[in-house]
Queue: 2 jobs
Job 1
Amino acid sequence: MGDLSSADRPAIAVKDDLRSVMRTFATGVCVVSTYSDTESTRRHNALTVNSLTSLSLDPPLVALSIRRDSTFVADLLASRVWALSILDGGGEDLARIFARPAEEREKALRSLPAEPGEHTGALLLDSAAWLECRLHDQLVTGDHLLFVGEVVGAGVRDSRSALTFLHGKFRRVDQHAM
């Protein structure tokens, strides 16, 4: 397949190859939220992710992966809970907002309609579906942390389309066109 064996290839080439390969894998798009508490206030935090994976139905477990250097990680580790808003086809603006720097995300959370989840207190946004999770386990995985969450609440809202990410772009998939 090539002139160099995988052992002889520079690590940077493997990273570039992995990025190219993974761009061809369509993923759903979510906003994950958590918070940090001080004596007098709760500060919410949210982040766009597309790394959600269902792990187990019994017990109900999901996983998500977040860069270790993200400011979101400290809040999630402190609260040990999070909520996931699985975006529908109209959620591209939300996905872009929560892919911005932390200060901009925090400002957006103060102005967007959201409600604290009944089981975790983490914010739920208008979305096609949602999950509330409690930290079950975590694992260092390279430059990311893999968070395994026990699902303690879930729901689905009526939606005609799904938001996906493929080839570096947001795409809508109409469920009725399938």
Job 2
Amino acid sequence: MANQYPGPPPEQPPGQPGQNPYSTPPGGPYAEGAYGYPATAPAPVYGYPQAVPQPYAQQQPQPQPPIGAPVLTLGDIAVNGDTIVSPAGTMPLRGAVWTATDMSRTEERIPPHAIVLAILFFLLCFVGLLFLLMKERVTTGFVQVSVNSGGRHHATMIPVQSRNQVVYVLNQVGYAQSISV
């Protein structure tokens, strides 16, 4: 317990490189090392060997997602070049089977502002009843898009609020089918 604190022992001056763990290595702080790791094993300090991290080349390579802007994106499914990237993993684009299911519904109803106008103008010779002829179409729901390729399957639900959005998603699925042939 004589030397509890880090630093050079009292008998060595702190200016000797290689002995003080806090000193700058010869050649500067970024000499010969990559990503902050030294290129060679440092000399042992105080008689204890230091652990040397594994060089990056000896580690197992990690699969990298394809680089570039996606050609097509449907929910959490993206098409990059010749691969499909999804939470289920990457799949080959060639031979992929795409399916789309319209799970939305469209309702036609009288909007609330038409009812208020009909009540306000009721006293003017029943003209206010014409406001009850106003209708609005409201689309709610989802379009389910699924892809199956390379032994993997992934499905996603895309929320839609209008018929135009439903048609847009179905056209995107048709485009995905055409490029996966």
